[in-house]
Amino acid sequence: MDLYATPIDIGTRAPTVILNTADAAELGVHPLDRVEIQHDGSTVVGIVELTDELVDVGELAVTRPLGHIDGEVTVTIAPNPTSASSIRKKLDDIELEADELDAIVTDIKWDRLTDAELSAFVTSIYTNGLSRAEIVHLTESMVAAGETMTWDSGLVADKHSIGGVAGNRVTPIVVPIAAAAGVTIPKTSSRAVTSAAGTADTMEVFCDVELDIDEIRDVIAETNGCMVWGGGVNLSPVDDKIIRVETPLSLDPPGQMIASVLSKKKSAGSSRVVIDIPYGEGAKVHSLDAAREMAEDFDRVGSALDMTVDCAITRGSQPIGRGIGCGLEARDVLDVLQGNGPQDLRLKSINLADMLLSACDVDDTAAEILEDGRALESFREIIAAQNGDPDVTKDDLPIGEYTATIEAQRSGLVSNANNRLVNETARRAGAPKDKGAGLTLAVRVGDAVDESSVLFTIYAQTEEKLDEAVRFARQEVPVRVSGPDEALVERY
Amino acid sequence: MDLYATPIDIGTRAPTVILNTADAAELGVHPLDRVEIQHDGSTVVGIVELTDELVDVGELAVTRPLGHIDGEVTVTIAPNPTSASSIRKKLDDIELEADELDAIVTDIKWDRLTDAELSAFVTSIYTNGLSRAEIVHLTESMVAAGETMTWDSGLVADKHSIGGVAGNRVTPIVVPIAAAAGVTIPKTSSRAVTSAAGTADTMEVFCDVELDIDEIRDVIAETNGCMVWGGGVNLSPVDDKIIRVETPLSLDPPGQMIASVLSKKKSAGSSRVVIDIPYGEGAKVHSLDAAREMAEDFDRVGSALDMTVDCAITRGSQPIGRGIGCGLEARDVLDVLQGNGPQDLRLKSINLADMLLSACDVDDTAAEILEDGRALESFREIIAAQNGDPDVTKDDLPIGEYTATIEAQRSGLVSNANNRLVNETARRAGAPKDKGAGLTLAVRVGDAVDESSVLFTIYAQTEEKLDEAVRFARQEVPVRVSGPDEALVERY
């Protein structure tokens, strides 16, 4: 059918075309069917939506992803992509070949799959898992579908935490240690999805984080390291599209996560990677056995991709550091770099940095680099290169002016500090949008407290958000205290 | 955030709202996030899309499902629906309770789930199955989510085939037999999705099939039976929405299918149901054991819903009847009603009708009602009540004027007639849109043929479609002939 196409300014994800209902009936297509649009000698695929009035008979409105199409087009029914049948195979628990995964990744890249198909792919991985061969092929396909960075320096390193632990802001400490030791470390991080802050959100307190690839090259050339938002660069973009459908369903299948992490690192040109796998109650990985299994997968898949991947299995059942929320975490980071700060954050950062240095055959220890001030100097250089103030002090960092303390209701021992509830309390207070919002923990699990001891202090930038965070914290009790004579976790 | 809402004529499935990118950033929402829209004292949920130009800052475009919203509104971020976490549970293979399934069905009814979530629900059922209790609860929820019909007549019966067999047009024979015997049979049927014709498409050759519930009542009052398109009435509308995402992925999990079928029958007020379960190579159900298991599920779930469900396990490895395609199937139907026609179609219709009559305690046999002309008389009454010509003869039925025959390439025995390839050949010829398009089979599996014997004849309404169907048939060989000395199915 010949139609006249006009761009319409709607930013749909998929390449959507809006047809008049009468034309759709004539073509025999329904909403969400695919059509092929021939225009100027090339053919693209569009997903159908219908209208009675917005688009006249004989016309075709094309949304922003197809905005280059304008004028006479020929529209025909398109077949379902072959990747749809591969997804069906995976649902039937049949292992997919490299070319099948490649076709799926290519179709995701070009937004040729509907949300329903993309979701089926993710759930098939969730329910049936991925073999190591599949993880390797998926990672390779995802790398090939995006931009890649290469470096003159022989050894390019990176670190990544699989997440789930509140606070845990080790990256802004590990990266300057590595950079100070001469290791090239092009670190990209995410923003918060359900947590109180992502590393990118916290770094934004100090400097710009939305850099393009050329700007990243300049920063690295100057300082060896960078700490930027991964969403600003086109490294493994298919991974971002997969995460978009995983998030609403809280799906994060291990095989997919390994492919996700390693595709980002491989695309960034890293060959030495340290992965932080926190485990325990309330972490993403619940048991030490599961953490070991994941570490083994990371190691094997990394080898197949010519990367040395070392895993640090860490305790993840409570937050790391004192501050939760961008500005409050930034204070912890600056404290540690200046030789103070929370001991748990300092120690974990040193351990991870030592693994990274050792993988890169560096002789200096992380503790030396931290203690003699080289890490702080490197940190200031990196934030200067990212347009931040290198002379930043704690007093410059944002902190909410409305505060409230949450106290123990009894004397006893701190028995639990729940990552999710701690994050959510900080979010109610305004994190990550309000840079000064969040909370600071006054205790760790195992600490003895008296009745009325402060457990944590909430900071907010408005009174309403403070009240909401206090209300939430009183109701959900993110930090629990048990009597010294209580052995029961729960009566059922 | 206060915005000014204006309806925009785009018929999205989900209630979509289009925000200016700047307002979305201020609100902290991304594409596909949910927002709550307060308007005139009531609150509705919308799914977010973004634009830079179509909608100004401070404005909100609402698509057709939200077309009643106009003027000042307050927009806030909406939480994910609780049914999303129930879907997650089902993905983890945890049995869902009645209230959880009810919440999912309600959210599907009101289009509150994204396609990604709906797809995850279907794939969770596909990979983890449904317990009988879950099927019962799902069916009850789907019935409650739509309109229901009630009848004065004590015994209301229905029949249904789970599909997958080409031709197989038994409904227009069984319904008039039952109606002639005094049984109330409000039969709704589907249109073709991947087959050459649905029962509704074939009946449309004779009469109107898009009747509303009041019109159906009138037809039933006059004739005891009807044969209409199910999509025209609001019986179990949630089922239709689930099928929409199942179709592109070719997913049709048994538990979901049982809930689908029985929710339609229950909504139509039927208490005696006969289910046709064809099994065999190329059918939906591959083995006799699987067919028996499904029959047992139908029986148990039916009992829990106060319905008597009898299952007919039938052979499904080849088409039933001679004609494939609306007009050609209609000829077979008229032939059988007039005492002739393909024996396989006639026999199967009689067997199914006898099960239905016996479930309704009718003494007459189907063969009697067919042979003495009462079934034909009832058929003519029904099509008259549905605004068709009661005096229709075979010469009135559409038949493509372009024809070609496909012949055996060797002498031997017909070893295979593949349902899917037979349907696809008919579709290439123009079915179901072209009412005269399709094919007529000249042989059945097991028939001895000479070289150059006609296997089937293709009918089309244009030469192009005829050529395309012939090309497809020559390449894919829907009907295969083996030499009498060949025992191998395949060399591998």
From TrEMBL, chains A, B:
Q: Which UniProt keywords apply?
A: Glycosyltransferase, Transferase
Domain named Pyrimidine nucleoside phosphorylase C-terminal is located at 413-480
Is Glycosyltransferase one of the keywords UniProt gives this record?
Answer: yes
The record ties this protein, via SUPFAM superfamilies, to: Nucleoside phosphorylase/phosphoribosyltransferase catalytic domain (SSF52418), Nucleoside phosphorylase/phosphoribosyltransferase N-terminal domain (SSF47648), Pyrimidine nucleoside phosphorylase C-terminal domain (SSF54680)
Q: Which Pfam families match?
A: Glycos_trans_3N, Glycos_transf_3, PYNP_C
Q: Which molecular-function annotation in GO is an example for this chain?
A: pentosyltransferase activity
Descriptive protein name:
AMP phosphorylase
TM spans, by residue? Answer: none
NCBIfam families per the record? AMP_phos, ARCH_P_rylase, PRK04350.1
Q: Which EC number(s) are documented for this chain? A: 2.4.2.57
Naturally occurring in which organism (per UniProt): Halorientalis brevis
EC supergroup of this enzyme: transferase
Q: Which PROSITE patterns match?
A: THYMID_PHOSPHORYLASE
